[in-house]
Amino acid sequence: MISSTSTTCYVHPNRETSLRCKRCDRYICTSCAVSTPTGYICKECMRERQRSFDTALWYDFISGAIVAGVISGVASFLVTLIGGFGFFGWILIFLGSSAAGTGIAEAVRAITHRRRSRALFITVGAGVIAGALPMLLLQLLGGNIFGIIFQALYLFVSVPLVYARLSGIQLSR
How many CB atoms lie within 10 A of CB 1? Predict the structure, then answer.
């Protein structure tokens, strides 16, 4: 007869488990397990692993937000100029917003020397929004409905694009 030893999760001692973290070999329950492509690890090992990917320095946040804000301000101004082009303007907004988002992301990657951090990506996204706010407020104060819509479209396209390019998210392979 085979006897099985009773093991419990290192975080939840009242939960029996046979699952182990592949890095530290501690027993973990299903609520403490994080699935990876090569197996399960505990949340502590996952945090430690994540820290190795967060390489941004404190000044990357400042320089990234400033670069994103300045380029976004210029792009936002250009969006207001496109507003008078009718239907062709709508196409230009989508194409221009994509180009602006790509340009902002690449400029930030260059200025930060490709250092990474989720907080950095969010800060840069906020910089893009902050750069577009003056033009958006001018459109709001002027009551220009198409100017407001074009500014909103610019932000709707460029902010997620900047985040995706910086973080390495790929929609297709």
Answer: 2
Decide if 111 contacts 70 (C-beta within 8 A). Answer: no
- Residue 84's pLDDT is 65
Q: Are 116 and 56 in contact (CB under 8 A)?
A: yes
Q: What is the spatial distance between Cα 120 and Cα 41, in angstroms, rounded to a whole number?
A: 26
Residues with Cβ within 8 Å of 93's Cβ and at least 6 positions away in sequence, in order, are 79, 82, 150, 153, 154, 157
CA distance 83 to 167: 31
Residue 61: partners with Cβ closer than 8 Å, 6 or more residues away: 119, 120, 123
How far apart, in whole angstroms, are the C-alpha atoms of residue 101 and residue 95?
A: 10
Do 45 and 124 form a contact (C-beta atoms < 8 A)?
A: no
> Which tens digit of pLDDT belongs to each residue from 146-166?
889 999 999 999 999 999 999
Amino acid letter for position 139: Q
Neighbours of 88 (CB within 10 A): 9
pLDDT along the chain (173 residues), means of 10: 66 90 91 89 86 85 97 94 77 92 96 92 97 94 88 95 87 57
**pTM for the full predicted model:** 0.74
